[in-house]
């Protein structure tokens, strides 16, 4: 029996998975119009930033150059650098006029890669090529995979699902063939890719693979050293990714995105998971025209996986057979399925007792990524049990058609509303959580070392026309705050609109019941600075007063759109240069931000146009490395320095990441490269192991 797969067979498999990938991406077939899903727009914008970062010379990617006021937002340092690197290269060299095409090419390549490696994984397990082919089709066309691509727009998760089969394949190779030096390199690289593509999939896959290997080792105590070897290779992969993982573990809890980690996990309904029909609603449409479908999704396991689980349970419970490798693995795979499924849906709420870190992004159905790979492997075993190698090519083709038909209903209707992408390509904007990876200074005040202003969010409300001034809302101002600076004031910028043209409307600022400021409202732009020193006499016998805005003679149609409302002048204006003034004197030179600014006498602080991250930036002042501090500016922390007064200051700023993490990864990649060279030289000196020897090695598994 020939167990090897020839290049001709791989060619036809590649063609098959290419056709399946084209089908899965068919709802995204237009190159000029993008579905109005926030996440898809966000990923396309990030690919544009990745191209700009690569053009600067960034490698690995760390900073999105134009995001968040051009303040060197480290999007890639904390989120999926590898997938955006591939897409950025494709955008730069293959599709330079359209990042959406680069988005789709990256997904298509990932789907083909995932199909080929799932075939290899299933073939290694069941030693039946046709069953392995069907299993790969089940995996790629599972409803959850389609939902991730077309209903959520999960670019990075879709790519991670494609890398996951390679991670599983090489990890099992390392477990059973630890003397093969190549597996150390393969496992390390595979886990590195998964970690730097989608951290959630990396985290939960690590958990499930660890449990699977632990179960196998308990069954066969001779393999404890094998488990340790896998652990070493896994740790090697983490070392390779330390430049990325280190800052996440140290700073992750301080980011704004940490708000997504809540105590409550939203689980899908059991009826939806087992339903043979599609249950996906249209989603909530925002005033801007984008759709949020997260709360409207009803994930499903799909009929092929339900079939595989049913057959597997029957044979394990009623007809146990442990003569072959696939039968040996099946009870442990079923155990992993049960654990993963309980984490997706459970009649009792156990998430409350786990560390908060486990509840990343609130939705337990993200763990269906673990359910579908187990279910697809069990599908290959079920086919082997039912057909006993009598499955023909014709039957396989018919089976593929049935599998695709059972899942194609999850593909969205292409006539949904779409938005023109032409203007977006010219000015890409991160729309979904654009400040996820900034330090949330309001909740982590220990990071604030200086303050120039803070946004008064209490006076802002979201409306269909943008941010509006919230009226008659009391905001407490403490005596201690007023006394902290004699220059403290509120700076208000916006636009006043009314249908009546009434010129007698006035905007009042009231402290308790006392008017401390008034502004005559006229249609058009509004700029008002409200000094708060007038409140001091109100605070003689009070610890605080309540501040609120009121419109006198207000008409129902009158609105004040807010562009900025901040509490400002904590620092004496004559003693610091604000970021708005400094950034006029700055330019980008590759990965360096260069600022040349003449500093007058008396200036104690320069506010730099770069977001603050501790121990992750390198700032040179006139060629000398200097420390930097954080300055709270509106709602962000910016880096600030003490300048050289009364002279020209040349400032060079570079986002470097954490140096210790960079060194660890650098050493890891050096060792990986040496091992690769050693493996290549050794391979040139030895003959390739024959299939018969490979078969004898595989027999040791059972």
Question: Which helices and strands occur, and which strands form pairs?
Answer:
Layout: H1 7-24, E1 33-35, H2 38-56, H3 67-70, H4 75-78, H5 81-93, H6 99-126, H7 129-140, H8 143-152, H9 155-176, H10 181-197, H11 199-219, H12 224-240, H13 242-251, H14 270-274, E2 284-285, E3 291-292, H15 303-318, H16 325-344, H17 368-387, H18 393-408, E4 418-420, H19 422-426, E5 450-455, E6 460-463, E7 466-469, E8 475-478, H20 479-484, E9 489-497, E10 506-511, E11 514-520, E12 524-531, E13 544-552, E14 559-568, E15 576-577, H21 579-582, E16 586-589, E17 592-599, E18 605-611, E19 617-621, E20 624-625, E21 629-634, E22 636-641, E23 647-655, H22 659-685, H23 691-699
Parallel strand pairs: 5-21, 15-18
Antiparallel strand pairs: 1-4, 2-3, 5-14, 6-7, 8-13, 9-12, 9-14, 10-11, 10-13, 16-17, 17-23, 18-22, 19-20, 19-23, 21-22
Helix pairs in contact: 1-6, 2-5, 2-6, 5-6, 6-7, 6-9, 6-17, 7-17, 7-18, 9-10, 9-11, 9-12, 10-11, 10-12, 10-22, 11-16, 13-22, 15-16, 15-17, 16-17
Features:
702 residues; alpha+beta; Immunoglobulin-like; 3 domains; 8-stranded mixed beta sheet; 18% strand
Question: What is the gist of this entry?
Answer:
By secondary structure, this protein is of the alpha+beta class.
What does this structure look like?
By secondary structure, the chain is α+β, with helices and mostly antiparallel strands. It has three domains: 13-410 and 666-699, no CATH class; 445-570, Jelly Rolls; 576-657, Immunoglobulin-like. An eight-stranded mixed sheet has the order 12-9-14-5-21-22-18-15. A hairpin with a 5-residue loop joins strand 2 and strand 3. Helix 2 crosses helix 6, helix 15 (303-318) packs across helix 16 (325-344) and helix 16 runs antiparallel to helix 17 (368-387). The model is unreliable at 689-696 (pLDDT under 50).
């Amino acid at each position: 029996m020939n167990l090897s797969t020839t290049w001709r067979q791989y060619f036809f498999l590649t063609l098959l998975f290419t056709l399946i990938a084209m089908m899965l991406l068919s709802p995204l077939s237009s190159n000029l119009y993008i579905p109005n899903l926030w996440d898809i727009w966000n990923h396309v914008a990030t690919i544009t930033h990745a191209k700009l970062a690569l053009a600067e010379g960034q490698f690995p990617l760390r900073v999105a150059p134009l995001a968040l006021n051009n303040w060197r937002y480290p999007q890639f340092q904390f989120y999926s650098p590898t997938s955006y690197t591939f897409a950025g290269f494709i955008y730069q060299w293959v599709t330079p006029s359209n990042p959406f095409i680069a988005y789709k090419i990256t997904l298509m390549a990932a789907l083909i890669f995932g199909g080929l490696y799932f075939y290899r994984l299933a073939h290694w397990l069941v030693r039946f090529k046709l069953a392995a082919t069907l299993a790969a089709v089940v995996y790629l066309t599972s409803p959850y995979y389609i939902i991730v691509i077309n209903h959520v727009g999960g670019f990075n998760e879709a790519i991670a699902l494609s890398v996951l089969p390679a991670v599983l394949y090489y990890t099992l190779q390392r477990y059973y063939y630890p003397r093969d030096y190549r597996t150390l390199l393969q496992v390390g690289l595979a886990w590195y890719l998964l970690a730097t593509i989608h951290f959630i999939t990396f985290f939960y896959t690590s958990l499930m693979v660890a449990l699977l290997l632990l179960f196998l080792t308990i069954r066969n105590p001779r393999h404890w050293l094998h488990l340790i070897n896998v652990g070493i290779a896994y740790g090697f992969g983490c070392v390779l990714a330390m430049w990325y993982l280190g800052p996440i573990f140290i700073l992750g809890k301080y980011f704004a995105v940490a708000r997504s980690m809540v105590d409550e996990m939203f689980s899908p309904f059991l009826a939806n998971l087992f339903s043979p029909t599609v249950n996906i609603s249209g989603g909530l449409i925002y005033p801007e025209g984008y759709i949020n479908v997260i709360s409207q999704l009803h994930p499903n396991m799909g009929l092929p996986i339900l079939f595989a689980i049913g057959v597997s349970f029957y044979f394990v419970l009623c007809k146990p057979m442990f003569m072959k490798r696939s039968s040996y693995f099946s009870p442990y795979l079923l155990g992993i399925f049960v654990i993963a499924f309980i984490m997706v849906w459970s009649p009792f709420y156990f998430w409350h007792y786990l560390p908060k870190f486990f509840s990343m992004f609130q939705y337990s159905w993200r763990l269906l990524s673990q359910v579908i790979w187990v279910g697809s492997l069990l599908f290959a075993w079920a086919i082997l049990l039912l057909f006993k190698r009598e499955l023909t090519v014709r039957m396989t083709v018919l089976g593929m058609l049935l599998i695709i038909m059972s899942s194609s209903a999850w593909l969205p209707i292409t006539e949904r509303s779409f938005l023109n992408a032409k203007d977006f390509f010219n000015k890409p904007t991160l729309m979904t959580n654009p400040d996820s990876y900034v330090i949330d200074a309001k909740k982590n005040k220990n990071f604030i070392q200086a303050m120039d202003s803070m946004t008064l969010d209490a006076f802002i409300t979201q409306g269909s026309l943008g941010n509006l001034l919230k009226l008659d809302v009391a905001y407490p101002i403490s005596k201690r705050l007023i006394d902290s600076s004699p220059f403290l004031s509120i700076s208000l910028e916006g636009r006043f609109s009314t249908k009546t043209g009434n010129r007698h409307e006035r905007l009042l600022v009231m402290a308790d019941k006392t008017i401390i400021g008034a502004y005559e409202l006229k249609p058009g732009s509004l700029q008002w600075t409200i000094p708060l020193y007038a409140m001091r006499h109100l605070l003689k016998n009070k610890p605080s007063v309540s501040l609120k805005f009121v419109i006198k003679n207000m008409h129902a149609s009158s609105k004040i759109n807010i562009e900025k409302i901040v509490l400002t002048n904590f620092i004496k204006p004559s003693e610091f240069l604000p970021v708005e003034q400094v950034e006029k004197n700055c330019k980008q030179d590759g990965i360096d931000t260069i600022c040349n600014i003449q500093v007058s006498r008396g200036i104690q602080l320069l506010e730099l146009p770069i977001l603050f991250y501790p121990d992750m930036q390198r700032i040179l002042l006139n060629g000398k490395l200097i420390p930097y501090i954080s300055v709270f500016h509106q709602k962000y922390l910016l880096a600030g320095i003490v300048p050289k007064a009364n002279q020209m200051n040349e400032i060079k700023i570079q986002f470097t990441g954490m140096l210790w993490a960079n060194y660890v990864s650098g050493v890891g990649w050096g060792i990986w490269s040496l091992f690769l060279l050693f493996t290549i030289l050794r391979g040139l000196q030895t003959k390739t192991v024959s299939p018969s020897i490979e078969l004898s090695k595989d027999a040791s598994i059972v």
